[in-house]
Amino acid sequence: MTSVLNHGNTIEYGKEVLIYFDNRRRFLVKLEQGKKFSSDKGVILIDDVIKRGVGSQVVTTLNARAWILHPLLIDYLEKGIKRVTQVIYPKDLGFIVLMLGIGSGCRVLEAGVGSGNTTMVLAHFVKPQGHVFGYENRKEFIEIAKSNLARVGLDKYVTIKYGDIKKGVDERELDAAIIDMPDPWEALETLYSALKPSAPVAFFIPSMQQLIKLFEAVDEHKGFMDVRAYEVLLREIELSRRAIRPSTHMVGHTGFIFFARKVIKSS
């Protein structure tokens, strides 16, 4: 399946679009011939969406205006995937991808696939030459993750395996890794065997106690250097004709991100 994120200038039946009214009303809608889309703003005929095309306005039965947009990856992360686990927030994922240097052609290990939220982001950046190798120790999550990846056409860039990375992984010479599990210090030997020398790894850690324990384990291991940890906070700026000001709400603590890079141990 071709990625739905490879946007052209046309839209067609069977695809999805973003119907955008405002920042609070944005809907992922599948284009099915003869069907209607309803919201508190009124009804839109799907056939009218097809006729007008992407980037155009469409008017509802209540005379409200909406815009027809191609969905971005963020739209699927926020509204389009089934979630059965806690996920790493976009504010953290963007920072992680940059710090790990992930791009097309990279081979990346992920531990703790869950719903496939992080997997989707990794696959988007490694395609078309790269690949994500995910490990998940709960079988019921694997099918959900595969379904979410297939929805956006990124499944061919991902292999998800049932297993616990603490017991080892099949892959070697990997370019990067991201670890989201309760006891990541137990996976250091697996990571040391799987990563290329100099390759970075990111650990997503919910609590300060876990962060301290991970740091102590990494420091003792001696196979990882360039260690650092961050917390990412995000505040939106409210934009209107009346006032432009910081929002009274913000996405605060979601977790700590611990980075390290593999080095060759001294003999």
Q: Cα distance, first to last residue?
A: 48 Å
The stretches of 5 or more residues where confidence is low (pLDDT under 50) are none
CATH topology of the largest domain: Rossmann fold
The number of distinct structural domains comes to: 2
Helix proportion range: 25-40%
Give the overall silhouette.
elongated
Chain-wise SSE layout:
Blueprint: E1 16-20, E2 26-30, E3 36-39, E4 42-45, H1 46-52, E5 57-59, E6 65-69, H2 73-80, H3 90-100, E7 107-111, H4 117-126, E8 131-136, H5 139-151, E9 158-162, E10 176-179, H6 188-194, E11 200-205, H7 208-221, E12 224-230, E13 237-239, E14 244-246, E15 256-262
Parallel strand pairs: 7-8, 7-10, 8-9, 10-11
Antiparallel strand pairs: 1-2, 1-6, 3-4, 5-6, 11-15, 12-15, 13-14
Structure report:
It is a single chain. The protein has helices at 46-52, 73-80, 90-100, 117-126, 139-151, 188-194, 208-221, and strands at 16-20, 26-30, 36-39, 42-45, 57-59, 65-69, 107-111, 131-136, 158-162, 176-179, 200-205, 224-230, 237-239, 244-246, 256-262. It is α/β, with parallel strands linked by helices and 267 residues long. The protein has 2 domains: 16-71, Vcp-like ATPase, Chain A, domain 2, CATH 3.10.330.20; 76-262, Vaccinia Virus protein VP39 (Rossmann fold, 3-Layer(aba) Sandwich), CATH 3.40.50.150. GO terms for molecular function: tRNA (adenine(58)-N1)-methyltransferase activity. This is tRNA (Adenine-N1)-methyltransferase. Keywords: Methyltransferase, S-adenosyl-L-methionine, Transferase, tRNA processing. S-adenosyl-L-methionine binds at residues 136, 164, 180.
